[in-house]
Every structure is written in C-alpha cells, then in structure tokens.
Design goal:
The longest helix is centred in the middle third of the chain and has 18 residues, at 297-314. It contains 14 helices and 24 strands. It folds into 3 domains: 2-74, Rossmann fold (3-Layer(aba) Sandwich), CATH 3.40.50; 81-326, Mur-like, catalytic domain (UDP-N-acetylmuramoyl-L-alanine:D-glutamate ligase); 336-478, Protein-Tyrosine Phosphatase, Chain A (Alpha-Beta Complex), CATH 3.90.190.20. Helix 5 packs across helix 8, helix 5 packs across helix 9 (318-326) and helix 6 crosses helix 7 (231-240). Helix 6 links the parallel strand 13 and strand 14. The protein has helices at residues 2-10, 26-32, 64-72, 79-88, 102-115, 204-217, 231-240, 297-314, 318-326, 354-367, 390-396, 421-428, 438-448, 466-478, and strands at residues 16-19, 36-39, 53-55, 76-78, 92-97, 121-123, 135-136, 143-147, 150-154, 157-162, 166-168, 171-174, 187-190, 223-227, 244-250, 262-266, 276-282, 285-292, 336-339, 345-349, 373-377, 402-405, 432-434, 454-458.
C-alpha cells in the first residue's frame, strides 16, 4: 500500500493515507514523498472531495474510513484494481506468480529489462537492492521493436509480483487476477504451487483453484513460463492454460512428460568470490556461462525463469541478460548478509514455508561450507504457526548444524491446530531446541557461535528486533 501511494504521488496525484503507525523506513519515506500520513482510522479522514479511496486487504467492512467512504458514495477500489487501472492498462505486464520465489524472480525480471534499456515499471513486494525502492512507474511510451517482419511499436513492460492473497473485503479473489488480461500478449511466470495461506485457503484444492483460474486468464496470444520441476504447476497449466507455454528448469530435474526449453546446469560456487555460476541452454543450444552474486539452486532456477520470460516475451538478448544478472545483488531479506560481527556471518531471510527453509539453508551451506550453520526460525505466518507442515519442517532443517526455534508468532490459535515446537525439536534431534524467548536465543548464539559460523535468521516478520541485537552483542563480544 505504501508503494502504491508513492506510485500515485509520482503520477501527479494528491495522496494521503491512514494506518495505525508509520514506522521507519516507510513512514519517513512517505512523508518525504509529500504524502500526508494520518495516524489511526477515523471517519473524519475521509472527506467528500476525495475521488478515490483505496482499501487495503487487512481492513474489514466495519473500518470507520471504509464505512464513511461508502456513506459518501466515494469510489472505492482494492490495491490490485488500482494498480491495474492506473499503471498496467496500456502497458505489457510481466506477472510473476507462485508460492515461492516471486519477489526475487520479479526483481530479476525488472533488472534484466532495465539493463536492456526497456525502462520497465515494476511493483514488487520486497526491496530489490538494485533499485531505490520496490516500485517505479517506468516509461509509458511504446517501444519500437525491430524483427524480420519490420519495426513495431510495443507497449512498455511493467513487472508485477502476483500475490495470490485476497484483494479486499468485498472481493476475496486473489490480487493476481487483476494483473492479467490487461493486453492481448501478457507475459507470466509460474514458479511453484504448494499449499500456503491456510487462513484463507483451508484446503489444497481451494489454493490450487486460484492458480487454475489465474493461468486460464492469461490471453491466448500471451506467454506463460513454468517451472517444469513442479508437478502441480505442470498439471494446472496442462489442464487450464490456453496461452503459449514454455517450461524451464535445472539439469537433473524430474519434469514428467515435459521437456524444458530453457535449462540451467549448476556449477560449483566460486570459492573466492562466492558467485554462483551456471551454464544456460535454450532449445538445446548452449548460451554460455552465467554467474549470480546470490547463491543457491533456487536462485539459479529463478534466474532461468526470468531469462526465459524476458527473452521470449520482450526480446531481450542473452548477452544483455547475462550482464544484468551478473550485477544483480538480490533483495532485502532474501539471504541478506547483515554483517560479520566477530567473524560470524549473520543473514536475514524471509523463509518460513518448509520448502523455502530447505532452499535457503542449502544455499547458505554451499556458500559457507566451513563452520557451523545455525538456523534460527520464528514461525509467524498463519501457515507456519499451524501444524499443517509439522512433519515437513523436520527435514527442512537437515542442513543446519544447530536449530533454535522461537515461540510461535500467533498465540491465538487453538492448541490442536498449532505447530508443536517441543515435538519439532525432539524430532529434529539433539541439535535443535525450542527456546522460550528472543532473549534466550540471543544468549544461546552469544555463547555458542564461533568465528567462521553462519547464522540464518528465518522469519517473515520483525523477529523481535533480533537482527540489531545480534549485530550489537556479537560485535561487543569481539572487543571484550
């Protein structure tokens, strides 16, 4: 919502917004952009002169400002519908959808298109290190594309992270429905489908149905790039997509009855630079060697998907894409190196689903083969706090040498539905412990982490400010 407010302000609109608090960094950034920030929700914030009220999906129909807007007859819209109307219409969207990898893949796409000179707009849920923010209008001018048929003016690209969470209280459909069907040749990437957001999609069938409807909405003349390794994604696309479809993957993937057009082959991490090389093949032909500053097979997979969509959907050349990916520096809170206090590599990562935890720890283990790997996990999301993935979490932490489990971030769930942290620690084994507090976790790390170790802080929330505390306490330990 803050990013949308900034986009609307950049487009020349007068913008104000309400929230319970405006903490750094977004609060000061909004005020610096000339956006009026109104603390708390009050009917008097909604004046009859307003032309549009954008209602966030965290609010219900009893919110006083939503009620006042309805009473005054002011037009209301969801975030996703507003993004579509003001920024996607007249553009060529590239929508990145899937349970995992959306933010990084979206950021890679935006950077590839930017470095290729296509001046993309973008709207991304995280903060890419390569850009000053997670959203930009980009160029709205049509781009001249030359091919064998001659020169054609094409709409400028707009990359959007396609979230499957619901749009607003009067429209419980996923936000990504608003992002496709904008033009005749939309481009989309489908990274994965694995049951998530259990608070609004209680069954696997309900969750998968959203992706079935999403791929069906991609225009027949559009393009859909799909991770061939994901069996559910393959089935959904086969049964419901009408657009042109291509598959991408990594060498050695089990891909069922499909053959990836775009294929990456992993190469050992460079021991000096820490770069992750891979060889790229398109249609069976070698495109040469690429290198990423961000480690792990999952990031190579994200990169191959981004390459496929940008090359086949927007005509970006392989050489330009290679240069762009070599300078891609990742996304905040995705294997984000915070520092090396007292020789301990301290990482912040958004991983909370078992699959994301597995991939993140595998990538960090490959980047830091020496020393112990500490996994410090806060189950905070609606899915992570439930017992849905109780068994899956046991294997997710396999690559860690030490596992510290923080208290559940949601204590209001019925006990029978909760993730059992004591049981999880027992089933992981002696290397794991369920800790009573953030203080206890900090004390464990301060006592046990040694120079050369790696600590991964895994949470989709603020994790009680543990990041700053560990940076301070580990640094202080060094100077004693």
């Amino acid at each position: 919502m803050a990013q949308l407010a900034s986009l609307l302000r950049d487009a020349g609109h007068d913008v104000s917004g309400s929230d319970v608090a405006f903490d750094p960094p977004m609060g000061p950034a909004l005020e610096a952009a000339g956006i009026r920030t109104l603390k708390g929700y009050a009917a008097e914030h909604i004046e009859a002169s307003l032309e549009l009220v954008v209602v966030g999906n965290a609010l219900g129909k009893t919110n006083p400002e939503a009620l006042r807007a309805e009473e005054l007859g002011i037009r209301r819209a969801s975030m996703s519908a507003t993004l579509r109307e003001h920024f996607l219409v007249g553009r060529k969207p590239l929508v990145v959808a899937g349970t995992h990898g959306k933010t990084t893949t979206s950021s890679m796409c935006a950077w590839i298109l930017h470095e290729a000179g296509l001046e993309p707009g973008f709207f991304i849920g995280g903060l890419p290190h390569n850009f000053p923010s997670g959203a930009a209008i980009g160029s709205t001018k049509r781009k001249l594309v030359t091919n064998a048929s001659g020169a054609t003016a094409k709409p400028a690209p707009f990359v959007v992270e396609g979230d499957e969470y619901d749009a607003v209280y009067w429209n419980k459909s996923p936000k990504f429905f608003d992002y496709v069907g904008v033009g005749a040749d939309d481009v989309a990437i489908l990274t994965s489908i694995e049951h998530d957001h259990i608070d609004i999609y209680p069954s696997v069938q309900a969750y998968e149905a959203q992706f079935e409807a999403f791929v069906a909405r991609i225009p027949r003349d559009g393009l859909l790039a799909v991770d061939a390794r994901d069996a559910t994604a393959r089935r959904v696309v086969k049964d419901h997509a009408t657009s042109r479809t291509l598959f991408y993957g990594l060498d050695g993937d089990e891909t069922g009855d499909v053959t990836p057009t775009w294929l990456g082959a992993m190469v050992a991490v460079d021991p000096i630079s820490g770069a992750q090389p891979f060889d790229l093949y398109a249609g069976g032909s070698s495109c040469g060697r690429f290198a990423l500053k961000v480690p792990g097979a999952h990031n190579v997979r994200n990169a191959v998907g981004a390459l496929a969509a940008c090359a086949e959907g927007f005509g970006v050349g392989v050489a330009a894409a290679r240069t762009a990916l070599a300078s891609f520096t990742g996304v905040r809170r995705r294997q984000d190196l915070l520092g090396r206090p007292d020789g301990v590599a301290l990482y912040d990562d958004f991983a909370h689903h078992p699959s994301a935890v597995t991939e993140t720890l595998a990538a960090l283990r490959a980047r830091h083969p020496a020393g112990r790997l500490w996994a410090v996990f806060e189950p905070r999301s609606a899915t992570a706090c439930r017992a849905l993935h109780q068994a899956a979490y046991v294997s997710a932490f396999a690559r860690a040498d030490r596992v510290l489990l923080a208290p559940l971030g949601r204590q209001n769930l019925p006990e029978a539905e909760r993730l059992d942290l004591e049981r999880l620690a027992r089933e992981i084994g002696s290397k794991a412990s369920a800790e009573a507090s953030i203080d206890a976790i900090v004390a464990r790390i301060l006592e046990g982490a040694e120079p050369g170790d790696t600590v991964a802080l895994l949470s989709n929330g603020a994790f009680g400010g543990i990041h700053a505390r560990l940076l301070h306490t580990l640094s202080a330990r060094r100077v004693r």
